[in-house]
Amino acid sequence: MEDSKKTLFSGMQATGNLTLGNYLGALKNWVALSDEYNCFYCVVDEHSITVRQDPAELRNRARKLLTLYLAAGLDPEKNCIYYQSHVSAHAELAWILNCFTYMGELQRMTQFKDKSAKHADNINAGLFTYPVLMAADILLFQSDVVPVGIDQMQHLELTRDIAQRFNGIYGDVFKIPEAYIGKSGAKIMSLQEPTKKMSKSDENPNASIYLLDDPDTIMRKFKRAVTDSEGTILYRDEQPGVKNLIDIYSACTGKAPADIEKEFDGKGYGDFKMEVGETVVSVLKPLQDRMADIAKDKAYVDNVIKTNAEKANYFANKTLRKVQKKVGFPERIR
Ligand code: TYM
Description:
Blueprint: E1 6-12, H1 20-33, E2 37-43, H2 45-48, H3 55-71, E3 80-83, H4 89-98, H5 103-107, H6 110-118, H7 125-140, E4 145-147, H8 153-170, E5 178-180, H9 215-223, H10 240-253, H11 257-263, H12 269-296, H13 298-327
Parallel strand pairs: 1-2, 2-3, 4-5
Helix pairs in contact: 3-12, 4-7, 4-13, 7-8, 9-12, 10-12
The structure holds ligand 1.
């Protein structure tokens, strides 16, 4: 890690099948920013158990997610790619920050409200304090920037509030992090109900492109994507289905929405959907191939897991020890 660089932190849950939304809203930006910052990319397995998980499946998905980070081009030599559960400072700092977070703040979190409606039989305390663990993730590494999709903004605002409150009492302990939201792709919508976010927990498999979908499935899903009866390819709120497809195409190609409107001027929805589908295949197929290759090299992945967890522990403990001292925990005797 280079002293001259600022620090970036982000994470993803190893729950469900990752979607194109996770890739375009987050992972793609992580890769774009990875040279500029010292980066910590975490597989947030502790967040995952706020809803019930099958243990074998969680373990398997967590490893796949870590492999995906590597396949996307994140370099484990320069950056730190690790499991949250391998760095106990996350949970320890979360406990401390729990004592600096108000019930009212957590009650306002829309993700808590959504998830408790969805899992009404299991509204556990972890689901409620989930954003505090997320704040601990970010603050442990004195992060300057946190690339996320728009749906995580509220959690990030809370993180800043908690950090400012803590600093207000104890002096400058935490860096106040900024969100990084990409120009395009920050909120990819469902292909079936384009006013709803594309989500890994959607029950309709046609609503989401999964990162591991094969090319035929991807093309079929785009063919079925909901548009409208306007017949024009314009980037505007009145046409949410078309707008979402333009957003996806824009995030994959780097082209601006206005240029995309020109490119498809006079063309029909059928042709447009095929082009978007093929573009997504050309992004996901190489990623899937690299993932399969990397997964074959078990020793390599194991070594990344081991050495990167050591790095993460080192940096995380520096902040944790400082915080423990500030709040008045007795010093360790060496
Ligand atoms: P998670 O696992 O739900 O999503 C991972 C990342 O993907 C983004 N994302 C999307 N972006 C655009 N369009 C979509 N449809 C879409 N769906 C998901 C999310 O915004 C996120 O950036 N709480 C976090 C994980 C987390 C975290 C952190 C993130 C835990 N600790 C610290 C940043 C920093 C979550 O559940 O993301």
